[in-house]
Amino acid sequence: MLALRHLRIGFWGLLLFLSLGLGLEALHGFKVAFYLDLESEPRRLAWRLAHAHGTLLSLVHVVFGLTLGSRHAPEARTAARASRLLDAATLLLPGGFLLGGLFVHGGDPGLGVLLVPFGAVALFGAVLLTARGLASSAATTGSEHELVLRQIAFGTAEYDASVVMRTRVLRAPLRLQPSPEERDEDRKLLHLGAFEGDRLVACLMLQELDDGAVKMRQVAVDFDRQKQRVGTRLVQYSESVARARGFYDMRLHARDTAVAFYERLGYEAYGEPFVEVTVPHRAMKKRL
Ligand SMILES: CC(C)(COP(=O)(O)OP(=O)(O)OC[C@H]1O[C@@H](n2cnc3c(N)ncnc32)[C@H](O)[C@@H]1OP(=O)(O)O)[C@@H](O)C(=O)NCCC(=O)NCCS
User: Fold this and answer.
1) Could you give all domains of the chain from N- to C-terminal order, each with its CATH number?
2) β-sheet bridge partners, residue 217
């Protein structure tokens, strides 16, 4: 998971660059000529900058990891791009200063320092993408209510609202009605909903499969709330619920028209296309 990866890089990076700081102190303490000579001034400067930038970038990784884990996380593709840029910056910025300080020429740092501007541009890009991604997630639904994601108990009024929603969004456009047996089946499933105030705006169900995986079923976002990231947030929420219950494989049957939506969320299609509820579908899966 991307958020955890950045938290790991951040904390291990902090350890690494704090150790580098100790190393630099030791060079001072033992009055090592290679570091303290007059002509080593560019080396001292470059390595101090490597230490400072490495420590700062490690903290940026931690903050980025926490942001990705929060409900304000940018959407998956933006997060993946920002993540790659941040990785590049973490190699190029401190790496460039370290190399630049290793081979100094007279009063100038070595050629390695040329990596630094590329690292700076990568960091700029990562921060810009994240800042813009946050803005679009804050604009989530255009509703005065914040979107609340939570479980729906079977048999309650909220459950009835979810049946109405699924029928309206998924079945009625195909001129189908839910069969009476579906209610019995629903009893065994986990129902999740996205609410704006009291209004249910999206729902889905999770079903435990025999092989320990989970199947996501009947994802429906109300018509006036589609394409406003509600589906993304509900699917991501369902993944965190599944993970918290110890499941690591999510599967689903996607309508052909929704395959691209799930691909954006990291799902991949497998097997041959097939027809379900009268429309073409693809089986899709994701390792959580
Ligand atoms: C498909 C559905 C669940 C997606 O939820 P949503 O809230 O509308 O989607 P989001 O706003 O979170 O979309 C995220 C991204 O996927 C894209 N997307 C959404 N629906 C899409 C679709 N049907 N086809 C292609 N891309 C789609 C969005 O444009 C957006 O792209 P971006 O990241 O570049 O901005 C919802 O539109 C829906 O309920 N549709 C009708 C019922 C249905 O098809 N359910 C799925 C059954 S398998």
Assistant:
1) 2-138 (no CATH), 147-287 (3.40.630.30)
2) 205
Going by alpha carbons, the residue nearest to atom 1 of ligand 1 is 258
Q: Which residue is closest in CA terms to ligand 1's atom 7?
A: 231
Does 219 sit in the ligand 1 pocket, CB within 6 Å?
Answer: yes
Is the CB of 221 inside a 6 Å radius of any atom of ligand 1?
yes
Say what the alpha-carbon torsion angle 29, 92, 132, 136 is, to the nearest 10 degrees: -100
Beta strands in 20-119 (DSSP E): none
Per-residue pLDDT of 63-102, as tens digits, reads 999 998 776 788 778 889 999 999 999 999 999 999 988 8
Extract the tokens encoding 107: 């009063």
Q: Which residue has its alpha carbon closest to ligand 1 atom 18? A: 261
User: For residues 72 and 6, is the Cβ–Cβ distance under 8 A?
Assistant: no
- Token code pair at residue 199: 């209004």
Helices marked H in the chain:
2-29, 33-36, 41-69, 76-102, 115-138, 157-166, 181-186, 230-244, 259-264
| Residues near 234 by beta carbon (within 8 Å), at least 6 away in sequence | 149, 192, 193, 194, 202, 203, 204, 219, 221
pTM metric for this prediction? 0.61
Q: What pLDDT shows up at residue 138?
A: 46
| Rounded CA Rg of the chain | 26
Write the pLDDT tens digit of every residue in 100-129. Answer: 888 888 778 888 889 999 999 999 999 999
Ligand 1 touching residue 83 (CB < 6 A): no
Q: How far is the centre of ligand 1, averaged over its atoms, from the C-alpha of 178 (Å)?
A: 22
